[in-house]
Amino acid sequence: MRGGAWGGSEVRTEPVLVSGLIEVCRATIAANTDSLCALDRAIGDGDHGTNMRRGCEAVSADGAKLSTLPFPDAVEEIGLTLVMNIGGAAGPLYGTLLMEMGRELRRRDETSEFSMVLKQAIDAVARRGRAQEGDKTLLDVLYPIQAALAERSPLGEIAIRAQRSASQTAPMKAMRGRASYLGDRSIGHVDPGASSCALLTTAICHYLEEHYPQ
Fold first, then answer.
1. Nearest to 78 by CA among 49, 56, 45
2. N or C: which end of the chain has fewer CB within 10 A?
């Protein structure tokens, strides 16, 4: 899968440096564990950062095996690992995203648009969480990312959109998860899941810009 595939063009079976993507995601979450926990303390249990770090470390531990798999299989396996290792709501949501993405990639041919693969996976997350865009969740980052991919935006612009979308969750009222119990008191705080999603998206975009330039 070439860098262009992540910008909305064709999904190809060309091998991806899976181990590199795993490592950049692990390092990003490790570097931001404390800040993610601080965000979560404001409207949740305060453990989103440590939960995400645990999940990324579990994936990293399997990195050698995962890097030998076809890309769709690796993505699905990573999703399963996250479900089993991330606590709270994040594990099922991130896990569903990646497992569905892997399955969609396997079902589609090599000329498929990656943005459509991602759309199917995000819709599965929405169904799993019984949430929609605007509910102050990671969906408020995922759907704008998908739209940017469909528009064939450059990877740098996709990263910027992800960061901006996460920031825009601050004035929202949480409608799902533990944060929803706070009602109006959830307003004014960035959603931790949206933040981790933006961090990971930015890391992936920068990695692909370097290794798979469009």
1. 56
2. C
Select from 35, 72, 75 the least CA-distant residue to 198: 35
* Rounded distance between C-alpha atoms, residue 117 and residue 187, angstroms: 32
Distance CA(164)–CA(177), nearest Å, equals 22
The tokens of 165 are what? Answer: 């979308």
Q: Return the structure tokens found at 186.
A: 């959830």
* Tens-place pLDDT, residues 16-68: 578 999 999 999 999 999 999 999 999 999 999 999 999 999 999 999 999 88
User: Quick check: 200 and 59 in contact, CB under 8 A?
Assistant: no
Distance CA 124, CA 134 (A): 16
The model scores a pTM over 0.85 = yes
Check: CB of residue 72 under 8 Å from CB of residue 16: no
SS3 category, 10: strand
Q: Contact at 8 Å (CB) between 158 and 150?
A: no
Mean per-residue pLDDT for 79-102? 95
Using only C-alpha atoms, the chain has a radius of gyration, in whole angstroms, of: 16
A 10 A CB-CB count for 123 gives: 15
- φ/ψ of residue 66, rounded to 5: -60, -35
